[in-house]
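Hey, quick one: can you model this chain's 3D structure?
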Amino acid sequence: TILTIPDMSNMGAHVNIHESQVKKVKIGMRALVRVDAEPGKVLEAKVAELAVLPDSASTRYTPNVKVYPCTIHIAGAYDWLKPGMNAKVDVVVEELQDVLYVPVQSIEVEDDVHFCYVNTGSRLERREIKTGLFNDEFIEIRSGLSAGDAVALALPQKSTMEGQKSAPGADPTAPKTPVKPAAKDKSIAKS
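Sure thing. Here's the predicted structure for all 191 residues.
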């Protein structure tokens, strides 16, 4: 072969799936591709290939991290899409309907039990919760909270919870986020 011309009508993306997420990803799953060259555009795609063995090149430099090569096929043809462009790929693992969720940073885990802090007006109340699926931004709340509860975005310092004067950054009036019912939220494996 002297010269190979790429077929620009069938574009895709090569991504690496972390070992902690690889069991969730299956061939044929829907994926969303965002290309840096066209911010705001979301391209529909599907998982076409998923390696059985981890990438040997990545284990050479980081032996404790295993990633599995995955090929994503983008649906449709786009004139502006060129080989070598950077992209972010979200693989849609599961879609949730009518769930309560909070930001992941508002959850505290102690001995495999999940807690969050709810503003009761005069103080922050530590409340045990049951969680479900999550992505890198939000976590599903299965029990322990109600829609509209004001959940602290940052975990308070222990002195505040023990009834002492508020420590800096542990003010009960600190930023809170209400628990949100979701019409539709996605649990995704990031690449």
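One thing worth noting: The longest strand covers residues 87-103.
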